[in-house]
Design a protein that fits this description.
By secondary structure, the protein is of the alpha/beta class. The protein has 10 helices and 15 strands. Helices cover 31% and strands 27% of the residues. Strand 7 (141-144) and strand 8 (147-153) form a beta hairpin.
């Protein structure tokens, strides 16, 4: 009898140890796709997939390949932060290849009188897709399971043009936060600091604004965000010299780990609702 009791106690201890050591389930995956000099991020949560930007025209076939390789069949949401070619260039191809439930674009983008060929192509694809298009500004949010996307900018539409008209999105998964800056520059960062403060802006991970350009990522703003990880999407040897040295120095001063698609390839993070975990990089 004593032997049976001992065996049961051992089994209970092993079961308890197993349960305590089990990893928390992954609630969110973030794939910062290597699309050269452009932005394209895939968020994968249990309630569906979200795409933030679609890279440049030159990478549109590559974007479709990467999304297909990841098993994407449809998108709950596609966010196009602004109408620069390196952010919407693959958009028409994405909209043709995958069903999309809703699309977000900034308010000012569709109001411009003069549009270049890429913009006209993209707007034509929006219309042809028949997808619900939402012109968003600060205050718009959507919840997909345990993941919430909140638009923090544009704040003031009259002042929010070009890069500073970018949609800035905060992604929350439980207690973990990530901030996606589009190409927002110093003017937007000042407005965000004034309007929200560090309690709203603080995030464990930041997708760096404007590919690491010195026109973004000011010292005051990065101090408020206080991130542990920063992801920069850029091409090797790009004509703009991005990311700029002074920006990298600011992150270094904050002991923030910088991950670059030009050096790493596609950068992958997961989140269990408590923190983000860097899962490594994938060469494309």
């Amino acid at each position: 009898m004593k032997r049976i009791v001992c065996v049961l106690l051992v089994l209970l201890m092993l079961l308890s140890l197993f349960c305590s050591c089990r990893e928390e389930p992954v609630l969110l995956e973030m794939h910062f796709l290597d699309v050269g000099q452009g932005d394209c991020v895939l968020l994968r949560c249990r309630a569906g997939d979200v795409l933030i930007d679609s890279g440049p025209v030159s990478e549109r076939d590559h974007v479709l390949f990467l999304l297909s390789e990841l098993g994407v069949e449809s998108l709950e949401l596609a966010v196009f932060t602004h109408f620069d070619e390196d952010h919407i260039g693959g958009g028409s191809a994405v909209l043709s290849a995958f069903p999309v439930k809703e699309i977000w674009i900034p308010e000012e983008s569709s109001e411009k009188d003069e549009k270049n060929e890429v913009e006209r192509d993209f707007l034509g694809a929006l219309e042809k897709s028949g997808t619900a298009v939402r012109h968003v500004s600060a205050g718009v949010c959507v919840t997909l399971g345990r993941v919430t996307l909140s638009v923090l900018a544009p704040l003031l539409l009259a002042e929010a043009e070009g890069n500073d008209g970018s949609i800035v999105v905060r992604v929350e998964c439980g207690d973990a936060r990530a901030l996606f800056m589009g190409d927002a520059e110093e003017a937007t960062e000042r407005r965000l600091l004034s309007h929200y403060g560090s309690s709203i802006l603080s995030a464990e991970l930041i997708k760096v604004g404007h590919h690491g350009s010195s026109t973004s990522s000011t010292k005051a703003f990065l101090g408020a965000v206080d991130s542990s990880y920063a992801v920069i999407s850029c091409a090797a040897g790009n004509d703009y010299g991005q990311p700029h040295g002074e920006v990298l120095a600011r992150f270094e001063a904050l002991s923030c780990e910088v991950l670059r698609t030009d050096l790493c390839g596609t950068v992958v993070f997961t989140c269990d609702g408590k923190a983000f975990t860097y899962e490594g990089s994938k060469e494309n």
